[in-house]
Specification:
The chain is built from one helix and 15 strands; from the N terminus they run αβββββββββββββββ. It is mostly beta strands. It has a single domain, classed as Umud Fragment, subunit A, CATH 2.10.109.10. Its main location: membrane.
Length: 257
């Protein structure tokens, strides 16, 4: 009986140590993140699985699960670069978001007819063909993609216009256009000190810094940064990762541009 009790105690100790180690790893180094929505297509697809590099920008209270880290501001802080794909805590809803950094503190940003003007200069866009996908429920949330060629029935080919956008630092990435919308034209935004301006790559399907909180992101304070998305580790087009026939092997270990 004593040996049995001792075995139970050792098992409990092992579980506790495993949870502590996993918690420290998640807090200091890498956090897993599933892509739940289509706001970053075609860079990131619904069902992509990432490990977010939490060392990239330093640490704040939001680096810990449930924001329990006893940290004021940020420690070991480093500034994101324009073009980084970043996971951050939404200041209003508390949800984790993923978008692309476009504006740094002091920058001005404006959209005119869908073109981004950064500090008064238009970001070049080159034609990159069409982005095509099947119009069907996607991911665990069963989101239906929006299409430039709507109306499209379920099972049909959903098309979006695709451009290659380039930042002044040479970083380039694809952006998608679904329709002409009011968000294609904005006032001039001036990013305050200690804040950042984010856009989704799927421009007509993204709640980002063009929109004020609570529904949008607005200017994001630096303390809400969690980490940088560097590489897709796994990807599944189905409702569950266990549906192996929906896996996307061509996206495994793919770098995030």
């Amino acid at each position: 009986m004593a040996e049995k009790k001792e075995g139970i105690v050792e098992t409990i100790k092992t579980v506790i140590w495993a949870l502590l180690i996993a918690g420290v790893f998640r807090t200091l180094f890498y956090q897993p993140f599933w892509i739940p929505s289509g706001s970053m297509k075609d860079t990131l697809l619904i069902g992509d699985f990432l490990f977010v590099n939490k060392m990239a920008y330093g640490y704040s209270r939001y680096s810990c699960p449930f924001a329990i880290c006893p940290i004021e501001g940020r420690i070991f802080a480093r500034e994101p670069e324009r073009g980084d794909v970043v996971v951050f805590r939404h200041p209003g809803t508390g949800a984790d978001f993923i978008k692309r950094v476009i504006g740094l503190p002091g920058d001005t940003i404006q959209l005119r007819d869908g073109i981004v003007y950064l500090n008064g200069q238009a970001l070049p866009q080159e034609d990159a063909g069409l982005f095509e996908e099947i119009k069907e429920p996607q991911g665990s949330q069963r989101n239906i993609p929006q299409c430039a060629n709507d109306p499209v029935g379920i099972g049909g080919i959903c098309i979006k216009e695709r451009k290659r956008e380039t930042l002044p630092n040479g970083r380039s990435y694809d952006v998608l256009n679904i329709r002409d919308s009011f968000a294609d034209n904005t006032p001039v935004f001036t990013v305050p000190p200690g804040h950042y301006f984010f856009l989704g790559d799927n421009r007509d399907n993204s709640q980002d810094s063009r929109f004020a909180r609570p529904n949008g992101v607005g200017f994001l304070p630096a303390e809400y940064l969690i980490g940088r998305a560097d590489r897709i580790m796994f990807s599944s087009a189905g409702r569950s990762l266990f549906f192996f026939w929906t896996w996307r092997p061509d996206r495994f270990f793919k770098a995030v541009e």
